[in-house]
């Protein structure tokens, strides 16, 4: 399938980079910006890129969809469009075009290690499965109900920002105690990567894994107590609940 990415904001660039790591991809942005690389073809005409592609990823604000699709009405017949915007649902998309699906990614798709939630709007089942298979070069694709796909936009799309905030704060704590920031960041990154590998390979609940990392009266449980005292757990729950 010939893939096109329309819109080169943060998510559009991430998708284009991920595809370019594995296969050719076409891109278009309304305003000219510097974006190039191996396997990337830049178009300056929207109709032309739609005409030349099989699947068009709309990485533009969802409010632009109606006007954008209207502007390519002569060449959009038979083309599959993908919405990556969590703000617009299947009912609205179904009115805009007869071949639509929702796919919500996160920015690690740029390094082909992303997480994506997919929901079929009105594609034939075989078309939908083919698109999912195509996007698996970018990472893990979950076939979900629409409400779960929208929640994934928070879990996979927003969590990286929350996670980076946690790491930044932890680095600040290490710097406060005298460690060089670069060393602190490297130590945290490797530690977290190891923890993620443990989680992916362990069927135990997260609470049990946390318990294995603490000892009575030890440093870790004292730190856990400080986090709980500061409202860490509730802050994370509130952030996910309010990101809608």
From TrEMBL:
HAMAP family: P5C_reductase
InterPro entries documented for this protein: 6-PGluconate_DH-like_C_sf, NAD(P)-bd_dom_sf, P5C_Rdtase_cat_N, P5CR_dimer, Pyrroline-COOH_reductase
GO biological process terms, semicolon-separated: L-proline biosynthetic process
Subcellular localization(s) per the UniProt record: Cytoplasm
This enzyme's EC code(s): 1.5.1.2
Alphabetized UniProt keyword annotations: Amino-acid biosynthesis, Cytoplasm, NADP, Oxidoreductase, Proline biosynthesis
Molecular function per GO: pyrroline-5-carboxylate reductase activity
Annotated family: Belongs to the pyrroline-5-carboxylate reductase family.
Function: Catalyzes the reduction of 1-pyrroline-5-carboxylate (PCA) to L-proline.
Superkingdom classification of source: Bacteria
Gene Ontology cellular-component annotations: cytoplasm
Pathway recorded for this protein: Amino-acid biosynthesis; L-proline biosynthesis; L-proline from L-glutamate 5-semialdehyde: step 1/1
Key word Endoplasmic reticulum present: no
Domain Pyrroline-5-carboxylate reductase catalytic N-terminal: 2-85
SUPFAM superfamilies: 6-phosphogluconate dehydrogenase C-terminal domain-like, NAD(P)-binding Rossmann-fold domains
Main location as per UniProt: cytoplasm
Reactions that this protein is recorded to catalyse: L-proline + NAD(+) = (S)-1-pyrroline-5-carboxylate + NADH + 2 H(+); L-proline + NADP(+) = (S)-1-pyrroline-5-carboxylate + NADPH + 2 H(+)
Protein name: Pyrroline-5-carboxylate reductase
Species in which this protein is naturally found: Peptoniphilus duerdenii ATCC BAA-1640
Annotated Pyrroline-5-carboxylate reductase dimerisation domain residues: 147-243
Keyword Calcium: no
């Amino acid at each position: 399938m010939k893939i096109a990415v329309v819109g080169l904001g943060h998510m559009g660039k991430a998708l284009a980079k991920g595809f370019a790591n594995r296969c050719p991809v076409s891109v278009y942005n309304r305003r000219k910006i510097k974006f190039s690389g191996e396997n990337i073809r830049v178009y300056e005409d929207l109709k032309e890129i739609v005409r030349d592609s099989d699947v068009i990823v709309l990485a533009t604000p969802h409010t632009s969809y109606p006007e954008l699709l209207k502007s390519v009405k002569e060449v959009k017949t038979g083309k599959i469009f993908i919405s990556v915007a969590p703000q617009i649902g299947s009912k609205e998309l179904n009115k805009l075009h007869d071949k639509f699906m929702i796919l919500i990614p996160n920015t690690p798709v740029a390094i082909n290690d992303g997480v994506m939630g997919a929901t079929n709007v009105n594609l034939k089942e075989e078309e939908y499965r083919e698109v999912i298979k195509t996007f698996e070069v970018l990472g893990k694709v979950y076939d979900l109900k629409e409400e779960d796909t929208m929640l994934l936009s928070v879990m996979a799309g927003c969590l990286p920002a929350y996670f980076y905030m946690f790491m930044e704060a932890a680095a600040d704590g290490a710097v406060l105690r005298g460690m060089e920031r670069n060393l602190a960041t490297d130590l945290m990154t490797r530690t977290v990567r190891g923890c993620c590998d443990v989680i992916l390979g362990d069927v135990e609940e997260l609470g049990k894994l946390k318990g294995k990392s603490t000892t009575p009266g030890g440093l870790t449980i004292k730190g856990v107590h400080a986090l709980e005292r500061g409202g860490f757990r509730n802050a994370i729950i509130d952030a996910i609940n309010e990101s809608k």
